[in-house]
Structures are given as structure tokens and as C-alpha cells.
Amino acid sequence: MIIKDLIDQHEFTVVSGEKLIDREIKGLYCCDLLSWVMSHGKQHDAWITVQTHTNIVAVASLLDLSCIIIPESIAVEQETVEKAMEENVIILSTPLDSYKIFCKMYELGLR
């Protein structure tokens, strides 16, 4: 699945990283404990988190995640957006909650 498809056809908007939306998503991970994500997340995962501080960018960059997805239209801190732009990390926003994001990804063929 390509990030661009989520943006073009579904309820996802780009917060940061517009130039990188051709990245592929190979998995999906949901967790808000950063140390847990660092030990269990996988390269090319899309990561769902309600965290919006700059440390999420560091984790995403370290693991080479496809993107960060912020659910429920939670506002992302401006400092985080700026850091994501510097680090080439895509942040997406959606009004969907985490469960509905998983359902949507399943419908789109992500297993």
C-alpha cells in the first residue's frame, strides 16, 4: 500500500512530508509507549500514536517507519511538524480512531 493512496482516496491528510508520499506501507503498529515502539516496530510500518511531541519523529526516523498516523484529528505540535520536515518523516492525520484505521487498512489489503 502506498501512502499517496490513503491521502487521495480516504480520510487521511498530510501534516508533514508531502514530498515523500510515495513510500510503501508494509505493516501497521499502534502504541503510545515510545520505548515499546522502538523495540517492536518494524521498518516500513505505519505507526498510529496519540503522542504529538518531537520524540515521535526520532522514533520514526530511527526505525525507518513509513509514516506516523495521528488519529481522531489530534493537533500536532508545530515543533513536531518542523522536526518531521527536517528529518523527512511523514505525519498523517485522520478523524478515524485507531480501531477504524486498522479496519480501513485491512479493507485495503494490508495483512
Task: Summarize it.
With 111 residues, the chain is α/β, with parallel strands linked by helices. The protein contains five helices and five strands, in the order αββαβαβαβα. Helix 3 runs parallel beside helix 4 (78-87).
Structure description:
This protein has 111 residues and is α/β, with parallel strands linked by helices. It has one domain (3-107): Udp-n-acetylmuramoylalanyl-d-glutamate--2,6- Diaminopimelate Ligase, Chain: A, domain 1, CATH 3.40.1390.20. It is 39% helix and 17% strand. It has five helices and five strands; from the N terminus they run H-E-E-H-E-H-E-H-E-H. A five-stranded mixed sheet has the order 1-5-4-3-2, with helices on both faces. This is DRTGG domain-containing protein.
Number of β-strand runs: 5
How many domain regions?
1
Task: Tell me the name of the CATH class.
Answer: Alpha Beta
Structural class: alpha/beta
Order of helices and strands: HEEHEHEHEH
Low-confidence stretches: none
Q: Major β-sheet, in short?
A: 5 strands, mixed
**Strand content bin:** 15-25%
Here the CATH topology equals Udp-n-acetylmuramoylalanyl-d-glutamate--2,6- Diaminopimelate Ligase, Chain: A, domain 1
Strand order of the largest sheet: 1-5-4-3-2
**What do the pLDDT scores average to?**
97
Radius of gyration: 12 Å
User: What quaternary form is this?
Assistant: single chain
Annotation field: number of helices: 5
Shape designation: globular
What is the name of the CATH superfamily? HprK N-terminal domain-like
